[in-house]
Design brief:
This protein is mainly beta. It has 4 helices and 26 strands. Helices cover about 10% and strands about 45% of the residues. The strands form 6 sheets. Strands 8, 9, 10, 11, 25 and 26 form a 6-stranded mixed β-sheet that branches. The termini are far apart.
Length: about 425
């Protein structure tokens, strides 16, 4: 190996997939140091992200099983689209040790998976108080310490979670993970945030960050929280509980402040749009994207694709395409969009027969993933990107170096923050 200088070796390693790099760490100590360095991990991830091939992508899908209930599990679904033909296949199946099914858990409390960035995913199992980081490429997973601010009150409901992995100018990875806690009182949702920081190894409690007044719909429990995404260092949550004022709530991960963005103005006043079935996501990893469910007078389904071309500028919302008419099933749940394969992934709720793929400028709907006979639904879905970021080591070149190893006790140094206010958003 002495024949390879770093200048020769690094360009070669940067072209290898993350799974191969994990194996090559055992070649020599010098290779391990290069592959494990934060700078290399960052540049490797960016190289593969920028070179992502059009016409091919992969997704992570969570499966919820029938009674007798088996454990929840993930599959990695590879999808390619070329010459008008859709090809999909299951590449891998993941059974994670902390995703054991609890027979006493609420039947609708399916685990939530959230893309945190840099190939890291955060999994939330609210009834079990489980929050875990997971890297599918390396198969590494880690439970976070329990939040000391957990509320046992039946008046409080944990409705959503988010996470953000950051690579800073100093060359280190860190992350923050948030839990949204809601109390419904006097027709208003009062939302608090429990926020964990790997840098501080502690939880903060932001009490009554924002308040959402329910007007004109029957949102209860969790069903008003459906979609969120990260962009520009902020978490974005689409809310429609006030039918007169649907909008996007933001949480700045650095400043730890709440804000808001507006959706396209005329959508608020067009009765053909069903915002309760719409999705907030990202397009091409660069733009906020709204996938909006619409029915015409003949009850035919369309899905409009809107993107915010200039972040933060309401007037820059632009409709780039419409998928439809969608003839199957009678009701669909839109789960996501992929620029790589040029289409939408939808879940057929009425037929219950799987995931479907639809080109976002077409009405051609094709089966993507049939639901196996032992599976109740496969309704949570994220596009998968590989990295070899690690969060289990003690080196300061690895993510979460300061986290208490595998600790399930509440983190120390936790505190209540008063940064947020009980303002109506």
């Amino acid at each position: 190996m002495e024949y390879f200088t770093d200048d020769m070796l690094i360009p070669i390693l940067l072209k290898l997939p993350a799974k191969s790099l994990v194996k090559f760490k055992s070649v020599s100590k010098s290779w391990e140091e290069i592959i494990s360095s934060s700078a290399f991990i960052y540049h490797h991830y960016k190289t593969f992200s920028d070179a992502a091939a059009d016409g091919h992508t992969s997704f992570l899908v969570i499966h919820d099983t029938f009674v007798p209930r088996l454990d929840y599990y993930f599959t990695r679904l590879s999808v390619s689209f070329a010459d008008g033909q859709l090809i999909s296949k299951t590449d891998e199946t993941f059974h994670l040790p902390f995703m054991k099914t609890d027979l006493e858990a609420p039947p609708v409390d399916t685990p939530l998976i959230y893309a945190a960035g840099f190939g890291i995913y955060c999994i939330f199992i609210f009834h079990a108080r489980t929050v875990a980081l997971w890297n599918p490429a390396t198969r590494e997973s880690k439970l976070l310490p329990l939040s000391p601010f957990h509320s046992p009150s039946k008046r409080d409901t944990y409705v959503y979670g988010f996470a953000h992995v950051e690579y800073d100018d100093g060359g280190f990875f860190s992350y923050k993970v948030g839990l949204l806690r809601v109390r419904f009182l006097n027709l208003a949702y009062r939302v608090s945030i429990e926020l964990y920081s790997s840098r501080e190894n502690s939880w903060k409690f932001f009490k009554k960050c924002f308040c959402l007044i329910r007007i004109g719909n029957q949102a209860t429990g969790k069903n008003w929280v459906y979609s969120g995404t990260n962009l520009n260092g902020k978490f974005h949550l689409f809310t429609w509980v006030n039918i007169k004022d649907p909008h996007i709530v933001t949480f700045d991960m650095s400043k730890e402040e709440v804000g808001r963005l507006e959706i396209p103005a005329f959508i608020r006043h067009d009765s053909s749009y069903d915002l309760t079935s719409s999705l907030l996501t990202k397009f091409d990893e660069k733009f906020l994207c709204l996938l909006i469910y619409r029915k015409n007078n003949e009850n035919v389904i369309y899905l409009d694709v809107w993107i915010m071309l200039q972040y933060g500028v309401t007037e820059s919302w632009t409709k780039i395409s419409t998928a439809g008419p969608i003839s199957i099933p009678e009701y669909v749940d839109v789960l996501g969009i992929s620029k790589s394969v040029g289409g939408l992934v939808i879940h057929g709720l009425d037929h219950g027969d799987g995931l479907f793929f639809c080109r976002y400028d077409s009405s051609n709907v094709q089966i993507l993933l049939p639901i196996p006979s032992d599976v109740y639904e496969c309704a949570l879905f994220v596009e998968c990107r590989d990295s070899h970021v690690s969060f289990g080591g003690t080196s300061d070149q690895r993510i979460g170096a300061n986290i208490a190893h595998s600790s399930r006790t509440p983190a120390h140094n936790s505190r209540i923050s008063t940064v947020c206010s009980d303002a109506a958003l």
